[in-house]
Write a structure and sequence with these properties.
Elements (H helix, E strand, L loop, with lengths): L23 H17 L3 H4 L2 E15 L5 E4 L3 E9 L5 E11 L6 E13 L2 E8 L2 H7 L32 E8 L6 E9 L3 E2 L5 E2 L5 E11 L2 E16 L4 E17 L2 E12 L4 E14 L2 E12 L5 E12 L2 E10 L1 H4 L11 E9 L1
Antiparallel strand pairs: 1-2, 1-3, 1-19, 3-4, 4-5, 5-6, 6-7, 7-8, 8-11, 9-10, 11-12, 12-13, 13-14, 14-15, 15-16, 16-17, 17-18, 18-19
């Protein structure tokens, strides 16, 4: 349930002093593999870095109501991450590249994450394609991490614009972000999107025709309790230079709480997105509870969203799982109400589904 990275990349810790959480023999083996891959790719620069090959292979047998069974890949990926010695006492360079992989056809998919930056006791700064604060600190906390299969509902933040999960805070390119070190339990995130200018039909630059945005967020950790808050805004396509009207002008804010005591995990979030062009709000909240003993666990999640002048959407997900080292076998059921099941064109556009999943991480 808990996030693994300030920028949404597997293998990183939320604590910036330990973003690359790899050590010992495991790191050595992976580093050797990564260097072999780097050599095959004829990229000599990587050979001088402390690089780690990582990935997650995921398959799921889904049976959706009134549909045939479907063996699906759900989010398999492979990547390289690492650090580079900059010759500075307190600062190291960091990099990450992660690519989607489809196990049903063996082909690479879209690029998931990619960034380059630096980290030290002063914090972490990166630029590239990454997640922002409203997702890391709020949106993602109720995901079902045992299977990695998400079946909940999210508010729409620039839906239909091609962003991951209809959210303009996930895997956003042209992003620059800074995450502070944790001080007295507090961590802060500041990020921006700098997309430059689009081109007109004549091929000349048009200012304010591409999406630009910013993100602010923070979290506070006190023993087993984590509280999060974040705000983001995004604009694109100025349609009237005098009035300052935009084709896209939206903001999103949210609050979250997480608590973990031994095998018990609890989480809750509230989010609200506003489309300032249409003056329509989308509000939603999610709840999560899970319990695990010796790798055996069960999870229950509930999420709901309400768009102005529309019916409320609801989703309930239950899952049981067994963790075996770096592997997970899971089985679950997702139930949608009619408003969610019939919401064509959204991430919730599916009917009630039973699934059995298998995931291997390395």
């Amino acid at each position: 349930m808990f996030l693994s990275a300030p920028f949404g990349c597997p293998g990183y810790s939320n604590n910036n002093t330990s973003m690359l959480n790899v050590e010992g023999e495991k790191l050595m083996k992976k580093s050797l593999i990564a260097l072999a891959v780097a050599g095959a790719m004829t990229v000599p620069a990587i050979a001088a870095a402390d690089a780690t090959l990582y990935g997650s292979f995921r398959m799921s047998m889904d049976k959706t109501k009134e549909e045939s069974a479907n063996l699906k890949d759900y989010g398999s990926r492979v990547g390289i991450k690492g650090t580079v010695d900059l010759g500075l006492e307190d600062t190291k360079g960091i990099f990450l590249w992660e690519q989607a992989l489809n196990l049903n056809n063996g082909a690479l998919g879209n690029g998931r994450y990619a960034y380059v930056g630096a980290k030290g006791s002063w914090g972490t700064a990166v630029g590239g394609k990454l997640d922002h604060a409203t997702w890391n600190y709020v949106g993602a906390i109720t995901e079902f991490q045992a299977s990695g299969k998400f079946g909940g509902l999210d508010v729409g933040y620039v839906p239909g614009a091609g962003f991951t999960g209809n959210r303009a805070d996930r895997r956003v390119g042209n992003s620059l972000a800074y995450v502070s070190p944790t001080v007295a339990g507090f961590e802060a995130f500041v990020g921006g999107v700098f997309a430059g200018d689009a081109l007109s039909a004549a091929g000349t630059p048009e200012k304010d025709k591409t999406i630009d945005g910013y993100q602010l967020g923070g979290k506070y950790t006190w023993e087993d309790l984590v509280l999060g808050a974040a705000y983001g805004a995004i604009k694109s396509g100025k349609s009237n230079a005098v009035l300052g009207d935009y084709a896209i002008d939206q903001n999103l804010w949210g609050l979250s709480a997480r608590y973990k005591l031994e095998g018990l995990s609890l989480a809750a979030k509230y989010e609200q997105a506003k489309n300032k062009v249409t003056s329509v709000k989308d509000k939603g909240y999610g709840l999560y509870a899970g319990y695990e003993v010796n790798g055996l666990g069960a999870s229950l999640g509930y999420s709901t969203t309400k768009l102005d002048n529309a019916d409320r959407k609801k989703a309930t997900q239950v899952e049981v799982y067994n963790k075996m080292g770096n592997g997970v076998v899971s089985a679950g059921y997702i139930d949608y109400n009619n408003a969610a099941a019939l919401a064509g064109g959204t991430s919730a556009a599916s009917n009630d589904t039973f699934y059995v999943g298998y995931r291997l991480n390395f």
